[in-house]
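Quick start: what a row looks like.
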Amino acid sequence: MQNFKPVIVAEKVNRAIFENEIKPLDAPVVLKGLVADWECVRLANQSPAALGTYLKQNDVGVPISMAVLSKDLDGRFFYNEDLSGFNFVTHKQSLSHMIDWCLAGKPGDVRDSVYIQAQNLDVVFPNLAKSLDMPLLDHKVRPRIWLANTVRTQTHFDTYSNIACHIAGEKTFTLFAPDQVGNLYPGPIESTPAGVPISMVELDQPDFERFPRFRRALESAVQARLEPGDALYIPAMWWHHVQTTGPLNMLVNYWWNEGRSDVAPPFTALFMAALGFNHLPSPEKRAWQALVNHYVFETDGDPMAHLPRSAHGVFSHNMSPDEMQGYQLAFKRAVAS
């Protein structure tokens, strides 16, 4: 069993501490007991059945997508053998149906794994959403609910910052910094189980002959075992593997992005960069890498600092919405042609 370094733990975190001390770390932090006063946490500590009854009372009956994985696959949601699809199926069900199914099992039973991910609480549990106060974020950042029995979520990243609030069951996060991407062996980027690339390496039983650099990733990894009422701050782009243990496991999370909302998704730029650069010979790739680092990632500082504002063009930090829209339309026309 791998011994991981623990995630930093912070207690009695308020908005000022979060903004001025936690976020600047650019690293995961356990926010101890942040939501311990939530009613759903209190009921979860009482029993899974008490939480289940509470959730069913607040369910408005909206059908949602539930992923189901055969019990033979040990809870690991992943690809099928030839990567042509996935090893689980999805179908529409009410949340109440899933809750009943999770709670019907007997202790020690090995059952199929079921998973509901990132459902908008304002839609599926609107009354519950009103009662979940998140004091660290603006009210416009809305909660999402995750429900499962016992599942393993393969190592992946999100393009949003995240506060994940653990409500019920057991939840263990194992996290890797963004610079570990090469040691995590990501799978296909265009076909993914949940919209973002996942690591092809099984955390608990890694194949080091096939994935030798994963040893380096393990050396740098950190881990957090959350108790009900704890929250975990995960900065955008940090990779994380999640072990969820039932019978009824619940998490509420808040995603947000501090970048502009009127720009193209970064993945679009990544896909276009692949099309533009991957066919080039190595010397030209290195030359373009230097250019992109200079202009886009600003490794030498602001590349436009020596020029007047009127000459900053697409590299302006203060582009107006109209200018942004104009550049994006011009880009779309260029791609279409």
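That is the whole record. The chain has two domains: 5-256, 266-336. The mean pLDDT is 94.
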